[in-house]
Design goal:
By secondary structure, the protein is of the alpha/beta class. It has a single domain, classed as Rossmann fold (3-Layer(aba) Sandwich), CATH 3.40.50. It is globular and about 40 Å long. The chain starts with a helix and ends in a 23-residue tail after the last helix. The relative contact order is 0.19.
Length: 110
């Protein structure tokens, strides 16, 4: 087993089941589906990509608003910059808010 696959599998087993996986591209959706199969997470994808087997959204900002208050864990399969902009309205300070300490860039594991 490749070390990245092993590391990802261990990480996914530790995050729990109250999880949403959100993706913005076709490649990201493929990865989101693999992740969801491992942990039984809900998948959110752009409605313009037409994935009937997922929950779709028209606005990524509105989707993050809902996910941030509805799920314990969010796995975002997209660029870190997008994630930072989407969660910024929901936090007051990186020093006082109780955000997850688990940030994993999958590209670094390959």
């Amino acid at each position: 087993m490749h070390i990245a696959s092993f590391t990802i599998r261990i990480f996914l087993m530790t995050i729990g089941s109250d999880t949403a996986v959100i993706a913005v591209t076709e490649k990201g959706i493929s990865l989101a589906k693999l992740i969801s199969n491992e942990i039984n997470a809900d998948i959110y994808t752009p409605s313009k990509l037409g994935h009937a087997d997922t929950t779709t959204y028209d606005s990524i900002a509105e989707c993050f608003d809902i996910l941030f208050h509805s799920y314990k864990n969010i796995i975002a399969v997209m660029a870190q910059g997008i994630v930072t902009r989407m969660i910024a309205p929901h936090i007051e300070s990186k020093y006082t808010d109780q955000l997850s300490s688990h940030v994993m860039k999958l590209g670094d594991l390959q």
